[in-house]
């Protein structure tokens, strides 16, 4: 897959079938749109493409981060590539695009830059100045200018409309166990391991700490059953997200104890995947009480991993 990170890079593109949308979660609804785009492009002998923005439009309009990311940029690109896409138009959303007339958006970008012959988008896709462009305008212009439009109706699972907003809410409410159903993968956090207070090591539970990326959506403070991936190997683990209220005042971070693991990870990059929340974070009366609770947390997490390995989950 070839990635274009600015409009200036895009010249003399072959005819394309383009998936239109933010695709900020690349959830199951997004995956369906992209897969249909790829199949149509293959059938027509065109290139398949995804047109998205490298920043969220609402953040530009608010001039601050009001919508946090579900995926890291490289993770988003990798998932899109895995769906068989030829081109990713990953363009910054700027003031020029913000104020663009919807017809100019179609003529100058979709047709002029992307050489679009067909497009796929969700029923609620909006574009152009004041979000005045919609699926109906795309269809009308397509009839005039000779490109096809395919609109995906609301995509639901178990009666829930699958959207990035819905998935953000699941994560922020600690319902990480539901992410797999709607995203097709576990919710995860990546980061470089930093030096912590080393208390865990002294009480028999060494941990790997990664700082919270403020641009990313994060779960509420608490203890979670997790997987930790390092150097391509996935290990069962248990993770605390929070501020460590028993032992002092700290910034919110992600602290993971990896079972049966003794390597030094400072400065290394790990990925923590969240399976289920087991309890809220709270302040204990003493380090001894905290240590006892951590023992119980480990027993709970190990039991969960064991049952998952033995196939007792449906």
Any chance you could write out the topology, listing elements then pairs?
Blueprint: E1 2-4, E2 16-20, H1 28-44, E3 47-53, H2 57-62, H3 73-82, E4 87-91, H4 95-98, H5 102-111, E5 116-122, H6 135-145, E6 148-152, E7 156-157, E8 160-161, H7 164-172, H8 179-183, E9 187-194, H9 199-202, E10 208-211, E11 222-230, E12 233-242, E13 253-258, E14 269-280, H10 287-309
Parallel strand pairs: 1-4, 2-3, 2-5, 3-4, 5-6
Antiparallel strand pairs: 7-8, 9-10, 9-14, 10-13, 11-12, 11-14, 12-13
Family: Belongs to the ribF family.
Catalytic activity: FMN + ATP + H(+) = FAD + diphosphate; riboflavin + ATP = FMN + ADP + H(+)
GO biological process, one term: FMN biosynthetic process
Structural features, described:
The chain has 314 residues and is α/β, with parallel strands linked by helices. Helix 6 links the parallel strand 5 and strand 6. The longest helix is centred in the C-terminal third of the chain and has 23 residues. The two termini are 35 Å apart. Helices cover 32% and strands 27% of the residues. The strands form three sheets. A six-stranded parallel sheet has the order 1-4-3-2-5-6, sandwiched between helices. Strands 9-10-13-12-11-14 form a six-stranded antiparallel beta barrel. The protein has two domains: 159 residues, 3-Layer(aba) Sandwich (Rossmann fold), CATH 3.40.50.620; 124 residues, Riboflavin kinase-like (Elongation Factor Tu (Ef-tu), domain 3), CATH 2.40.30.
């Amino acid at each position: 897959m070839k990635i274009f990170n600015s409009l200036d890079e895009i010249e003399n593109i072959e005819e394309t079938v383009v998936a239109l949308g933010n695709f900020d979660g690349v959830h199951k609804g997004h995956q369906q749109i992209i897969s249909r785009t790829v199949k149509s492009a293959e059938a027509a002998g065109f290139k398949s493409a995804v047109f998205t923005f490298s920043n969220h439009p609402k953040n530009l309009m608010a001039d601050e981060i009001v919508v946090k990311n579900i995926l890291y940029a490289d993770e988003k690109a990798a998932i899109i590539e895995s769906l068989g896409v030829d081109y990713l138009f990953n363009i910054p959303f700027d003031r020029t695009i913000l104020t663009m007339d919807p017809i100019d958006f179609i003529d100058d970008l979709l047709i002029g830059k992307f050489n679009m012959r067909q497009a796929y988008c969700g029923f609620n896709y909006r574009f152009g100045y004041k979000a005045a462009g919609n699926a109906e305008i795309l269809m009308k212009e397509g009839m005039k200018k000779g490109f096809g439009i395919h609109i995906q109706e609301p995509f639901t699972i178990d009666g829930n409309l699958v959207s990035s907003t819905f998935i953000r809410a699941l994560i922020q409410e600690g319902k990480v166990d539901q992410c797999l159903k709607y995203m097709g993968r576990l919710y995860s956090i990546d980061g470089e391991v930093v030096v912590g207070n080393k208390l865990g090591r002294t009480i028999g539970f060494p941990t790997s700490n990664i700082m919270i990326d403020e641009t990313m959506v994060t779960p509420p403070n608490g203890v979670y059953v997790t997987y930790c991936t390092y150097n391509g190997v996935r290990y069962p683990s248990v993770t605390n997200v929070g501020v460590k209220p028993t032992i002092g005042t700290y910034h919110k971070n992600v602290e993971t104890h990896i079972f049966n693991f003794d390597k030094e990870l400072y400065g290394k990059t790990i990925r923590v995947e969240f399976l289920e929340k087991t309890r809220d974070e709270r302040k204990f009366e003493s380090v001894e009480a905290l240590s006892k609770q951590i023992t119980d947390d480990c027993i709970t997490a190990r039991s969960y991993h064991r049952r998952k390995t033995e196939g007792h989950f449906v």
